[in-house]
Specification:
Elements (H helix, E strand, L loop, with lengths): L10 E4 L5 E8 L9 H13 L25 E8 L5 E7 L1 H21 L22 E2 L16 E4 H9 L1 H9 L10 H18 L14 H8 L3 H17 L11 E3 L3 E5 L4 E5 L3 E5 L2 E10 L9 H4 L1 H11 L10 E8 L7 E5 L4 H20 L21 H9 L10 E2 L7
Parallel strand pairs: 2-3, 5-8, 6-9, 11-12
Antiparallel strand pairs: 1-2, 3-4, 7-10, 8-9, 10-11, 11-14, 12-13
The chain binds zinc ion.
Length: 428
């Protein structure tokens, strides 16, 4: 028989008479307003019926026996605390009987599934996973971009298009935002909010079954978008223009019922010689008459910039080409496409670009693009700040003295190169 122990992490307090127990869970940015039902159930159960224990030295030491029922508290409370702004949210306040019920309803089924489940789900957790060597479900893609292993041994790292972009702008930004998860709580810019709203509306529509192309749907007007997304009038109007443009380019237009359509599908690959997990979430992946098609959709204020190649301007396309080429989606690379849908507000201003991962010159360029971006990231150990226009939109600027000074000296952001909103920014 296997014995399981439920434990809690956080700041725990009890009133002197033992009638009230509190748990404060710190969150790095703002306090979370809610947590998954199973998590709250597990927390309530331990708070009500658990007992304080010193940290045990060895895993083999038996856990202490639980409270025998005589010292139960009357009330347990759980708070989420925002370390960045000092505000908190109360997540629950209840007695042991309610906690027990909650655990039976929401906690036990989740615990049973976790304790008996044997499936694998490759993704971000592969970075910390100790069983990666024996995992058959994580796709191996050796020499994905031909990177060089590091001279010094380091722990496993992950690489996504978002990581590459943040690092390319500034190593310190990447380190603070992606590795330390620091956030200055500043509000998203209007462009990013609009991009996220378009993103959400498209995912919602593309995720509906049976599959239907957006051309066959009624278009959303400004008022409808405002109501659904909370955007202001101007942004909702721009989003309406972009969605109208998308109706022409929708990859699902006229798609047969038996084709596969995967919205925000997670693609994970492992580069063994670098000990790197590659993570990508294409906006849409679908089949079309035996082909696999990877579609990235960008919303933009400005036209597609012609000064640089598509793969260079959008490294996620380069990652898509390489992952397809390596067969990371279980596909035949000679029968796949990577597409960029570049949406603008004005009628007829949007574009659809297509790249063939079966063509050697595309693969070579994609390798060069990713190698150039990924190698410095993987080799870096100091993450020095590099100031520039991106400081204006940096989520970690509060924590960065050079960035703060740069913005003071350059109060206007200037003209961005491509002016696009990266839908990938909304992940993670
Ligand atoms: Zn569509």
């Amino acid at each position: 028989m296997r014995q399981y122990e439920h434990t809690l992490w956080g700041r725990m307090y009890a009133s002197a008479d033992g009638s009230v127990r509190d748990l404060w869970i710190p969150s790095l940015g703002r306090a979370k307003k809610s947590r998954p039902a199973a998590e709250l159930a597990a927390v309530a159960q331990v708070m009500a019926y658990g007992t304080p224990t010193p940290r045990r030295k060895a895993r083999t030491e038996p856990p202490p026996t639980a409270t025998d029922g005589r010292d139960l508290p009357d009330l347990v409370r759980v708070f989420d605390f925002g370390c960045a702004d000092g505000l908190f949210e109360r997540l629950l306040a209840e007695g042991p009987a309610e906690a027990k019920q909650r655990f039976e309803d929401d906690g036990a089924p989740a615990f049973r599934a976790a304790a008996t489940g044997a499936g694998t789900r490759p993704g971000e957790s592969c970075v910390e996973c100790k069983a990666i060597a024996g995992c058959a479900d994580l796709k191996r893609t050796p020499e994905l971009w031909g990177g060089k292993p590091q001279a010094v041994a380091r722990s496993r790292q992950s690489v996504s298009a978002w990581d590459l972009r943040l690092y390319g702008e500034c190593p310190a930004q990447y380190h603070l935002v992606r590795q330390l998860h620091l956030n200055d709580l500043s509000a998203e810019g209007a462009g990013a909010r609009r991009g996220r709203a378009v993103d959400t509306l498209l995912n919602e529509r593309h995720g509906e079954r049976p599959v239907r192309g957006c051309r066959e749907r009624q278009s959303l007007d400004t008022a409808g978008i405002r109501a659904k997304t909370g955007l202001d009038d101007a942004s909702a109007g721009e989003a309406a223009g972009m969605l109208a443009e998308h109706r022409l380019f929708c990859p699902l237009n006229g798609l047969a019922n038996d084709e596969q359509v995967l919205v925000q599908h997670r693609v994970t690959a492992y580069v063994p010689e670098l000990d790197v997990v590659v993570l990508a979430v294409p906006d849409l992946v679908h089949t079309y008459r035996g082909r696999w098609i990877w579609r990235e959709t960008k919303t933009a204020a400005r036209p597609l910039w012609e000064g640089s190649s598509l793969l260079r301007s959008y490294p996620q396309l380069a990652l898509g080409v390489l992952l397809f080429h390596a067969g990371a989606l279980g596909n035949d690379p000679r029968r796949s496409w990577v597409e960029l849908e570049h949406l603008r507000e004005g009628h007829g201003e949007s574009r659809l670009e297509r790249l063939d991962p079966g063509r050697a010159e595309n693969v070579d360029e994609a390798r060069a693009v990713i190698a150039e971006l990924a190698q410095p990231l993987l080799d870096d150990t100091t993450y020095e700040p590099r100031t520039g226009r991106h400081c204006h939109g940096c989520q970690a600027r509060t924590w960065c003295r050079p960035g703060t000074a740069y913005v003071t000296d350059h109060p206007h952001p200037g003209v961005p190169g491509t002016g696009t909103t990266d839908r990938g920014d909304t992940h993670g």
